[in-house]
Amino acid sequence: MTSHKISNADQIPDAAVFSQIRAQVLPKIRPSDAERTKLEAVKAELLETICKTAEMFGEDDIVPISVGSAERSTWLSGNHDIDLFVSYPEDVSRQDMETRSRRLLMEVAKSGDSWEDRHSEHPYIHITKGGFEVDLVPCFRVKSASDIKSAVDRTPFHCCFIKERIPGKQDDVLLLKQFMKSSGVYGSEVRNGGFSGYLTELLVIWYGSFEDVLKNAASWRFGQTIDIMGHQTLAHEDPLVVIDPTDPKRNVAAALSLTRFAQFINAAQRYMKNPSAEFFVKKEYAPLPVAEFKNIMKKRGTEWVGVAFDAPQKADDTLYPQLFRLENSLGEILTVNDFAVMNTHAFAGDKCIILVELMSRMLPPLQRRVGPPVWAADNAQSFYGKYKDADETFTLKIKNEYLVAEIVRKYQTAESLIADKILKEAALGRHVRAAVSDGYQIIGLDEICQIQDPAFWKWMNEKLTKQI
Amino acid sequence: MTSHKISNADQIPDAAVFSQIRAQVLPKIRPSDAERTKLEAVKAELLETICKTAEMFGEDDIVPISVGSAERSTWLSGNHDIDLFVSYPEDVSRQDMETRSRRLLMEVAKSGDSWEDRHSEHPYIHITKGGFEVDLVPCFRVKSASDIKSAVDRTPFHCCFIKERIPGKQDDVLLLKQFMKSSGVYGSEVRNGGFSGYLTELLVIWYGSFEDVLKNAASWRFGQTIDIMGHQTLAHEDPLVVIDPTDPKRNVAAALSLTRFAQFINAAQRYMKNPSAEFFVKKEYAPLPVAEFKNIMKKRGTEWVGVAFDAPQKADDTLYPQLFRLENSLGEILTVNDFAVMNTHAFAGDKCIILVELMSRMLPPLQRRVGPPVWAADNAQSFYGKYKDADETFTLKIKNEYLVAEIVRKYQTAESLIADKILKEAALGRHVRAAVSDGYQIIGLDEICQIQDPAFWKWMNEKLTKQI
């Protein structure tokens, strides 16, 4: 928190400017009639298939529900996602529900063009059909969203809440989603840590319009709280707190990272100052040619150290938290050992690649080790005993209240440090530990230059050239 | 402060061990009878000269007073200091006192072998006579030490307090002074920041003996307070607080640095654990040969940057505070600009030399500049405006709540940084500023190797090899 004056709301551009931008942007992001018709047809067909299949299996207690942006007309043109939930009575056991839903949904999946067995917290089936990406998700039909048996049971309540309030504001949701996409803050998957679709819809409902969301977001600060139903029951330590209208205990924005929160605030400030259709165009990064990469690194003058290993075959939401922990952990290990860390990055393709950009991968032999304060007499004595007249000791002195030894540094290169510490001290989640234990490579500039994956080079281009 | 257990007092060596050490050390540090007789003779002769000279000038209101360790038999053999004060009545004006004392003391000085006009807070005359260093100091004869007209007026009160209480404990004072000298913590001049003679005497009076001072000092912590007269009236934020028995407002240990305080505690702990006569032998450092210096620097792998300029002709107590400020200031300027500072040093000979030891005198071009948090909207906007699409900008991003620019570093060498900042931003006291403004040289390893002053190379030897 700071005491700086917020003045961005001082001069809000003319309403006509906003109207003009809306008129310019909306036709590009609003689904066409043909798109809508096709989506409705696929959705209807699948709902009918679900009903017929249930009937075939004699399952008369299930209810298929269409949820998600497709159901509330808040989907961006080109986004072809359909979410269909199949709800079971609350008193069905989880085991029975999983067995029954699997039989049902696998049969339904046959009507798709392809299918895939997926699971996050619980299993679901993903199919493609007529160019649409369809999730078929079993859930429980609970009485209220605060009484759920599985995380997905909330979704029908969310859908219901939005459908009742969003009519007339769908365009505002589309504008907000596109604005967030272009700013890199849309998408609540762990890898991204941005805003979810439901969250954008709640913001539009609360503030009234796209422009009002931005006008207000421009002066948000850490801890900004929105409680539409005025029913909050728990304190939340998150950058943004949006109490779920269907569950007083839950913060809809719990997965929003501080960085994404701040990026949105900054983008909102800039938009309110100089609104333009440019804010709705997402910058694409081409794969960075290796020669250009080498050239940039020469200009930066920094050095890379990293670790590469085979990517565990896990969903992104499982894998990325583990990669981020390893990324942070390697950064900390290097920092604690006097390496000057400029950036850390994590990439997952066929290989997982953790990269740390350093001022230098080499340090001089001299290391300054600050010991205990003299009044911790036992510790001071053992520090003294360890370094006094030791081969590795240059000097042993007292500075302020601390014993200080100047000694020969054990890890003079970042590579030797990581090789020694990665399995012993780095924070390794279960799947990443298994993968690293199976084998890893310590990499530097030369090894990075040999990476072929174009996705890696697009990603690297963004890391090295992005300007908000 | 820490919660570590202090256990050094658990097992105190046998009294016989201490006696043996005393018997071994005292003959070396106690002045011989011949030394004493000579000192008394010189002292008596000078006192007589003062009285006769005063009579000659018709000054019948002055009183000469012998103060200092020479007066209370707490001087170490070989230390040939005599302090003679000439006191004037309190109602004499400062101006008159200075004029009269100058006439008087200049006349007295003629009986010396050489003389020098000196001043700290106020002027005094320093003479040598018969191998003794004599300070002739004018002061006011005030009613109490808490009512002084100049800082030196306290000294007669101190002398009086000690003389009454020290008989029988002089050997303990000699042992404590010698122990402190060997540990490098004796001497309260600003350059050293250690214990004064008066302070050591008070410690012996308070704790009773040399060994009891050390036994207790071994478990001192920051803020240790000793108030012999139980008359403290002010709070002091110093490592050691010893309330002046002659002035309740004053901390006798106010000039003691945290480092010297801690060094004494540590030495006391080690002595109480393994007492030996070795603790009373001061390690002397020979001048470090340049070839050996180069060899050590190669092993350390670090680099030097420094500043050299002609030493202002000022007393150490005036010069050193200014040198230390510049030393700290250069260290901070380098640190803030990403240079990894290992050590800073200040030396004064014919030249003043400030040295900073760095991991590297060069940094890569990439600099990471962390800007304001996004919610400081005006500042964020101006940071954005400054770096967006600037020639020097690599990237401009948001990380957590902050705008972060990766830019081309302005100061890629420590030399260029210091050259640009020393006169503009470094903390320069009056005399050091004048000297640096007259001209300075930025130095590195090669220039250091050309320094001829043996005192510098003794000092450097200690910096690079000292082990407590």
Automatic annotation (TrEMBL), chains A, B:
Its cofactor is Mg(2+). The keyword Nucleotide-binding applies. It is an enzyme of class 2 (transferase). The keyword Nucleotidyltransferase applies. Mg(2+) binds at D81, D83, D135. Residues 300-443 form the CCA-adding enzyme C-terminal domain. GO terms for molecular function: ATP binding; CCA tRNA nucleotidyltransferase activity; magnesium ion binding; tRNA binding. GO terms for biological process: RNA repair; tRNA 3'-terminal CCA addition. InterPro entries: CAA_C, CCA-adding_arc, CCA_tRNA_nucleotrans_2, NT_2-5OAS_ClassI-CCAase, NT_sf, NuclTrfase_I-like_C, Polymerase_NTP_transf_dom, tRNA_NucTransf2. Keywords: ATP-binding, Magnesium, Metal-binding, Nucleotide-binding, Nucleotidyltransferase, RNA repair, RNA-binding, Transferase, tRNA processing. CDD domains: NT_2-5OAS_ClassI-CCAase (cd05400). Residues 171-280 form the tRNA nucleotidyltransferase substrate binding domain. Signal peptide: none annotated. Catalyzes the addition and repair of the essential 3'-terminal CCA sequence in tRNAs without using a nucleic acid template. Adds these three nucleotides in the order of C, C, and A to the tRNA nucleotide-73, using CTP and ATP as substrates and producing inorganic pyrophosphate. tRNA 3'-terminal CCA addition is required both for tRNA processing and repair. Also involved in tRNA surveillance by mediating tandem CCA addition to generate a CCACCA at the 3' terminus of unstable tRNAs. While stable tRNAs receive only 3'-terminal CCA, unstable tRNAs are marked with CCACCA and rapidly degraded. Belongs to the tRNA nucleotidyltransferase/poly(A) polymerase family. Archaeal CCA-adding enzyme subfamily. Homodimer. This is CCA-adding enzyme. It comes from Methanolapillus africanus. The lineage of its organism: Archaea, Methanobacteriati, Methanobacteriota, Stenosarchaea group, Methanomicrobia.
